[in-house]
Design the sequence.
């Protein structure tokens, strides 16, 4: 017997200030391949119900028991809890009522793509790597279909469907007695057309060739010099030193005991963060992006958000609660990883916006410096201000030319130091998949991060 969610919502409306119901089904298929041997195959299909109620305070309850009697009890508990918790001033932003059904299209549908074909594709990659002299090889492939039904007491009724593909590889090579490792994540909303788009056979072998060169690289003397970072590095910088510190819950102290605080304060809109060339965006609406959504988990229409604009702090990532606290409208940043997790402020696709140069133009104007095309390690403090990035694929630049590989160059810098040193941004734009972790209990959500090639002047490298 299917539950009448409208009647549950009506009960919330009678007894509380606000309420929302979310029913979420997530189907996953996963394959793991290690050195040509299947080490794991898993299929899961989970459906759950979540209710959030606001009265004196917010309450959140969830259950996987979808029997109508249990759902009714779950809603009653949520109402009771919201009315008995210590009172807290919560003012939700006023948002438009939405009625919509939306979804992401697939060319090669996940449901029609057989396991045998997935394994065959992964085996082709493994054989290609093995023949290229790669002794350590691991691949992980996951597809996922997320279906969401959302209702709230403001009148919104939204149904959404997001199919997505995720692929990860890890390889290790030995060259002249030196070991080097590399990995990369690929993600996309849509169907299995992603495998053709990613061209994994060529990409993985090319990575192996680079690793063999890197294994023979030498350390560069430390000192001040120019630095060009590639899209993978500019992407992690954008995610860690802009996306996270611009989350409104973090700014307002909600994350202090969990993931940390932010160097950004509520009154810092308009303050200088970098040069005029710095524009950092978070955009959930990019077609087939890994963190794509049309509406967030509070029923607010998603849009492009300029977090840093022309070198200044411009806009926080906000849900309805923190937008209301700041007297603003939500910009649709509420996301939840699973049916049993509350929606919290999250990123989607975070990147430095492209500029006017090409890579050659950035390089030719460097007398002495480093080109850090990818990273092997990063670290950042819990206010997102002091950070460190260690290069994996990196090269010396001398007199406007890219020269020999450089071993593990290290950039230790502040957020304002990084963005304040930017004097050139390329036209390129590449994205890389990731899983962003936040919250307690932990929530991992699909994201893209990326950007162009970015040139920094006179930074300290070691």
Sequence:
């Amino acid at each position: 017997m299917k539950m009448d969610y409208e009647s549950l919502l009506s009960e919330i409306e009678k007894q509380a200030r606000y309420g929302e119901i979310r029913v979420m089904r997530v189907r996953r298929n996963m394959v793991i391949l290690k050195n040509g041997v299947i080490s794991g195959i898993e299929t899961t299909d989970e459906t759950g119900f979540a209710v959030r109620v606001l009265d004196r305070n917010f309450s959140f309850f969830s259950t996987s028991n979808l029997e109508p009697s249990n759902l009714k009890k779950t809603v009653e508990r949520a109402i009771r809890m919201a009315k008995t918790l210590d009172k807290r001033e919560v003012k939700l932003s006023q948002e438009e009522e939405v009625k919509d059904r939306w979804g992401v299209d697939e060319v090669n549908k996940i449901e029609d793509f057989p396991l045998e074909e997935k394994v065959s594709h992964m085996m082709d990659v493994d054989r290609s790597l093995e023949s290229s002299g790669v002794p350590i090889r691991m691949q992980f492939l996951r597809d996922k279909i997320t279906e969401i039904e959302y209702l709230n007491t403001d009148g919104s009724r939204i149904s959404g469907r997001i199919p997505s593909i995720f692929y990860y590889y890890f390889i290790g090579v030995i060259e002249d007695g030196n070991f080097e490792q590399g990995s990369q994540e690929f993600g996309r909303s849509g169907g299995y057309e992603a495998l053709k788009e990613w061209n994994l056979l060529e990409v993985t072998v090319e990575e192996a060739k680079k690793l063999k060169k890197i294994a023979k690289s030498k350390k560069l003397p430390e000192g001040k010099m120019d630095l060009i970072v590639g899209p993978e590095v500019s992407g992690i910088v954008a995610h860690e030193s802009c996306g996270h510190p611009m989350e409104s819950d973090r700014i307002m102290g909600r994350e202090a005991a969990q993931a940390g605080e932010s160097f950004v304060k509520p009154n810092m809109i308009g303050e200088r963060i970098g040069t005029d060339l710095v524009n950092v965006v978070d955009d959930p609406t990019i077609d087939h992006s890994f963190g794509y959504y049309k509406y967030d988990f509070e029923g607010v229409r998603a849009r492009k958000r300029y977090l840093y604009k022309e070198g200044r702090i411009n806009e926080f990532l906000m849900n309805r609660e923190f937008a209301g606290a700041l007297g603003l409208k939500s910009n649709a940043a509420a996301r939840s990883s699973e049916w049993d997790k509350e929606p919290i402020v999250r990123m989607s696709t975070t990147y430095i916006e492209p500029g006017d140069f090409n890579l050659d133009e950035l390089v030719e104007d460097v007398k002495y410096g480093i080109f850090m095309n990818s990273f092997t390690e990063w670290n950042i403090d819990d206010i997102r201000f002091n950070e460190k990035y260690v290069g994996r694929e990196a090269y010396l630049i001398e007199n406007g030319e890219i020269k020999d590989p450089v071993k593990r160059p290290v950039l230790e810098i502040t957020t304002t130091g990084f963005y304040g040193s930017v004097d050139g941004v390329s036209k390129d734009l590449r994205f890389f998949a990731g899983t962003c972790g936040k919250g307690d209990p932990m929530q991992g959500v699909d994201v893209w991060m990326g950007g162009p090639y970015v040139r920094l002047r006179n930074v300290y490298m070691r």
User: Anything to note?
Assistant: The first strand starts at residue 18 and ends at 34. The chain has ten helices and 24 strands. The radius of gyration is 24 Å. Residues 68-84 form the longest helix (17 residues).
